[in-house]
Amino acid sequence: MLKIEYIIENRDAIKHSVKAREKDIDIDLLISKYEKLKKLKKEIDDLRRIRNILTEKINSLNKKKKNTDETIEESKKNNEKIEIIELEYDSLNSEYISLLYKVPNILHDDVPIANEDRVDWETKLKKPIFDFKPKTNWEILTDLNLADFKRGIKAAGDRGWVLRGDAARLARAITNFILDFWREKGYFELIPPYYVKEENLYITGHYPGGEKEVYKTEDGKVFVGTGEISVLAILKDDLFNKKDLPKRFMCYTPCFRREAGNRADDKGLYRTHQFDKVELTLITTPKQEEEEYNKIFEGLKELYTSLEIPHRIITHRANDMPNKATIEKDIEIWLAGENRWGEVGSIGMTGSFQAIRGNIKYASEGKKEFVHTIYATAGVANRILIAILNNFQQKDGTVKIPKALVSYMDGINTLREQKD
User: Fold this and answer.
1) Tell me: the pLDDT tens digits for 94-113?
2) Average pLDDT along the chain
3) In angstroms, rounded to a whole number, what is the distance separating the alpha carbons of residues 338 and 2?
4) DSSP code of 243?
5) Which CATH superfamily is domain 118-415 in?
6) How is domain 4-100 classified at the architecture level of CATH?
7) Could you please report the per-residue DSSP string of 319-340?
8) What distance in Å separates the CA atoms of residue 21 and residue 316, rounded to the nearest whole number?
9) What pLDDT, in 10s, does the model give residues 319-372?
């Protein structure tokens, strides 16, 4: 969320962001509602002061045993005015807050205003070339008896899945490898709640707008679709010391999303309701944000190079970005068996957008300022597993395991048919 003072001061830039993102939000209407609220607030305050004066006058008249009828009647009419204006204020304030929460973040100068996302960088790793017809991830897993999609659907419904044997072990190995990699980069590991109070989705910017994407319980808890939600919920109302920033957090969580609609990549493990993800959440000062953001990409390049998976970085166009982000980029990995790039994670800067919603600040020289936050997918086990299946499949139907993961598999270097 942006402060209304910032919106007023940067009205043209906010209007540009709204237009570029193709949002239907009237910034002038928002500001006019704010100005009207200020006037109503002043009227209410003035009437409350009059109420206090009249109350004192009535008390004084009572002490002097003088008639108070006229003053009581005046006080009654004044209270009626207060009630009427307070109702108007509450109604207008509800409209104002609802509109304010829909206003997107300001745009970073590097965000493309275009019809397509921009490819910024691509690895020099060679894409595999096969002398046989390659299989998709679901064909490989089924043929090797390493997954059971029918039983997964029987148990969980649409897009359910079960990994078996060494595939299950490899998925766990991938998560452990990712955690170890980012720990060596200075990230502090958390195991946060896998579900949060629904109100916390407003902090990250998933609400309003993402209400249909979540799974929630009858008592208002939401199963997280990313660890970022849990971490910022933990940090809500916290005050950091400037000298202790940046703070670099990482967490593994099972993630849950409804993923409504039908897509070409629905089959297999690529787009499922449940997946395992490691998320990075950074708390920075405004001056640190861009530098920390760029460091993440250097880490991601190293991570996927060590896994021998061709990858690239794209920058989202303005109309394909979440409201919370000033800029958002994706890491995409090459899926040779499906002859396409697949998104494996998003990395975005939010400025103080999330910090304002979560009241997360830092103190410096007696002043308190809102922190800046960065979110980043450190790695998704399901999708990295898909990339391994796609790119490391062999003519005999087996799948080689990248060297970096062999030690996490106790020396197993090939996925073979799983025997029951």
Assistant:
1) 999 999 999 999 999 999 99
2) 95
3) 42
4) G
5) Bira Bifunctional Protein; Domain 2 (3.30.930.10)
6) Orthogonal Bundle (1.10)
7) GGS-TT-SEEEEEEEEEGGGTE
8) 11
9) 999 999 999 999 999 999 999 999 999 999 999 999 999 999 999 988 999 999
